[in-house]
Design goal:
The protein contains 1 helix and 7 strands, in the order αβββββββ. By secondary structure, it is an alpha+beta fold. The radius of gyration is 26 Å and the shape is globular.
Length: 136
C-alpha cells in the first residue's frame, strides 16, 4: 500500500512538471509572433491606375511607400484623402504623378474631388520582422 501511495505521488509530480513545461512552451516571443492581420505582406511601392473613372485596388503598403498614380482617362482627376491635409494631388489626363504614402499605420480612404463615385483606400501596415508571407 505504501508503494501505491508513493507511485501516485510521483505520478502527480510528473503530470505537474509536464503541464508546467507545456505551458512554458506556449508563450510567445518576437521571433514567433504572428501578424495582427492576414493577407499579403505590405510592399514599399505601388502604382494606382485610374481608368474609366475608377481607381485600381491597392495592396497593403508600408509607411512612406512610394505611390505612382497613372491617369489613363481623358479627364482630370484627383487623389484626395478624406482626412483633410493628409494628401491631395491632381492628375491631368494621360499624366502620371508620384507621392509618398502616409507614415501613419491604418486605413486611409480617398476620393476624386471631380467625380463623386470614385473612391478608394490605402492600407498602410508595418512589416513584421522575420515574417515571411506563405508561398503560393
Amino acid at each position: 500500500m505504501n508503494s501505491t501511495r508513493t507511485s501516485r505521488w510521483w505520478h502527480r509530480i510528473a503530470i505537474g512538471l509536464l503541464t508546467a513545461a507545456w505551458a512554458a512552451g506556449c508563450g510567445t516571443s518576437e521571433d514567433s509572433a504572428t501578424p495582427a492581420w492576414s493577407g499579403p505582406a505590405p510592399i514599399p511601392s505601388v502604382t494606382i491606375t485610374i481608368e474609366h473613372q475608377n481607381y485600381t485596388g491597392t495592396p497593403p503598403i508600408t509607411p512612406g511607400a512610394v505611390l505612382t498614380v497613372v491617369n489613363l482617362d481623358s479627364v482630370k482627376h484627383s487623389i484626395t484623402s478624406k482626412r483633410p491635409g493628409l494628401f491631395d494631388h491632381e492628375i491631368g489626363p494621360g499624366q502620371t504623378i508620384t507621392f509618398t504614402a502616409p507614415d501613419e499605420v491604418g486605413s486611409h480612404p480617398f476620393y476624386c474631388r471631380y467625380h463623386a463615385n470614385m473612391e478608394g483606400a490605402l492600407s498602410v501596415r508595418r512589416r513584421i520582422p522575420g515574417f515571411r508571407a506563405p508561398s503560393r
